[in-house]
Amino acid sequence: MFGIFRKREKRAISEAPIDSLGLPYSSTLASPLSLQTSMQLSAVYRCVEVISDSMASQPWEILEFDNKQGWIQNPFHNSFYLLNSEPAPYISRYTFMKTLMTKVLLEGNGYAIIRRDNRGDPVRLDLVTGLVTMFKRYNGSIYYMVDHPNYEPVKTEYVEGYDMIHVLNFSYNGYLGVSTLTHAVNTMGLASVAEATAKGFFSSGANMSGILKSNLGKITPEKAAAVKAAWAEAFSPTTGTPGGIAVLEAALEFTPVTVAPKDAQMLESRQFSVLELCRFFGVPPPKVFDQAGLTYSNVEAYQLGFITDTMTPLDAKFENEFNRKFFRPSVRIRTQLNLNINELLRANLDAKSNYVSKMFQAGGYTVNEVRRECRNPLSTNENADKPMIQVNMMPVDKIGQKEPKIDNKVKKTVEE
Fold first, then answer.
1. Within 13 Å of residue 355, how many CA atoms lie on the same side as its CB?
2. Where does 111-220 have alpha helices with state H?
3. Which residues of the chain have pLDDT under 50?
4. Closest by alpha carbon to 334, among 145, 118, 63, 152?
5. For residue 355, with 0-12 CB atoms within 10 Å meaning exposed, 13-18 middle and 19 or more buried, which class applies?
6. What is the CA 211 to chain-centroid distance, rounded?
7. pTM across the whole model
8. Nearest-CA neighbor of 187 among 38, 45, 40?
9. Residue-wise over 98-126: b if at least 16 C-beta within 10 A, else e?
10. Where are the beta strands (DSSP E) in 74-137?
11. What is the pLDDT of residue 90?
12. Radius of gyration over alpha carbons of the chain, in Å?
């Protein structure tokens, strides 16, 4: 079967990434740090953690169109369990979405294969962790060559474009995404060097390098080596005591040659690197526990900005990719997927209560829908499922005028 497939695709055009970060122009930029080294930076780790956790915290809603009620949620859809509990037997929905988002940020592309039954309905989602090569046919369609590393020898699989969830990070060509680490390579390099400098400074017992100078002229190499060894033994954290005391012989003078951390603004550089990395990932500094400028009055604004500027575009990206591939075309017409971003406000009870109250007053929520949002038992009253609006408003030209009293009997007769 694969021999026939390869023969048919012999004229395919390869659009494969050059390196593991999905960088199609690595010759024009410095090479990014490895993924492991990048994640050792606290700002990078926290930014990736915040975004991926926020994405994984949002449940999928399956909406179906009704001619009378419009788009309504269907929690009993066949794919509801697949999307919200267990995409595959070996992974949970939370871990699946978190890992997929992490690969989008760090590698530039996140892949998941849609497994279907004989009718074409999705029954499983497999997260791709191996090497993926993307091919474009001359008719514009796409297919992928996937290497599964968990097999010995490595198993190669060909997947059609409509069976592959492919979420791109920032892209220059619309086919492949580019890792955020690639654009932040200079900032991460500076941050990594600052971390290494701080580690080296404190590992040496906070002692500076320098020169031992003799005022008696030239000394023998053996004498110089002995003095150097004695000095290193006194101050090395591995062979001596950090901050130890060295005894200099007569006419020997120590001259420091290392720039002091304060003069090098090492602390300021490390703080600036945190802010720069937050800019690349689109995460507010308070989200990575940078307390500078944070007050009780603006913490809610930071949270709202994160949801509006960072998570909303990412939600739209995931929703668009899933909606155009997950369901069969005949089902896709009246069914769509939606990420419930309201879950990110679950802990913000003040904002959530304000939102629910306004929706109820405008007739957007019924009494039972409000109770459902508050995790309370639903009311059995027949009016609890009817939308309500306030009626204490009146036209300006009616102010001060009294409504004429109407006898109920007369009113009933008129209505009849």
1. 12
2. 180-183, 185-203
3. 1-31, 206, 240, 263-265
4. 63
5. middle
6. 49
7. 0.70
8. 38
9. bbbbbbbbbbbbbbbbbeeeeeeebeebb
10. 109-116, 122-127, 132-136
11. 92
12. 32
